[in-house]
Amino acid sequence: MRREFERLPSLITVAPMVLSGVLFLLRALRAAWGMLMGQENPGDLSRTAAFGTFLMGMVFMQLLQNVSLGGVVVTRLMARIRHLSDTDALTGLANRLRLQETLKGEALRHRRNGHAYSVALLDVDHFKSVNDTHGHAAGDQALRAVAEVLKRTARTSDTVGRLGGEEFCVVLPETAETGARALAERARVALKDEAIVFEQRQIRLTASFGVATCTDPQEDWAALLKRADVALYRAKSGGRNRIES
């Protein structure tokens, strides 16, 4: 439960099952005590005054279990819907909607604490030729490989996403331009060295990067993203497989 949910929902779900187990344990202990004392049918509670309490307790625990398990089903469905709504289906990265929400959050945090944050955009160079030469299935595999490279080179605090097509984005919280360019360089080199094999054919890729850093609390996230896009265009115009900021 803790792998999927927060602490409180996990405790609420598991607690009825634990209490039911405790009731059965108490019954077993009582039966064992009765055997030691030489009682006849010590495990039969139906002839004792405690049987009604035990029965009502078990009914109550079963009702709680049903409610909690129903809650688990609903929560998992909600989590699945949320995952589908903010995740890119091909790469498993954040999609455009989730990237925008992340950027909005970083812009608000920047206004509160004044810490700079950065955005790195990248566009795969000559990606159309991959589809034309090897087919769209190879192109899909190439995009998944780019996603894996970005996830390997990014930090756990960064948000890596796909804006669409062969364009990706990395949101870097509390990161100045130097740190953003360093991450972009790691990703650029890693992608250049990545050997992508599709149907026994090797595909080599490079990417161009545009980096922008927000240091002005009045600049909104959309303007920052536009600056990164302009820098990306300069990288493409300047020969590709390079970083501009």
Automatic annotation (TrEMBL):
InterPro entries: Diguanylate_Cyclase, GGDEF_dom, Nucleotide_cyclase, Rev_trsase/Diguanyl_cyclase
Residue ranges annotated for the GGDEF domain, each copy included: 115-245
Keyword Transmembrane helix included in the entry's annotation: yes
Annotated Gene3D superfamilies: 3.30.70.270
Enzyme class, first EC level, given as a word: transferase
Protein keywords: Membrane, Transmembrane, Transmembrane helix
EC number: 2.7.7.65
Membrane found in the keyword field: yes
Catalytic reaction equation(s): 2 GTP = 3',3'-c-di-GMP + 2 diphosphate
Segments crossing the lipid bilayer: 12-29, 49-74
Pfam short name (any one): GGDEF
Protein name: diguanylate cyclase
Top-level taxonomy: Bacteria, Pseudomonadati, Pseudomonadota, Betaproteobacteria, Burkholderiales
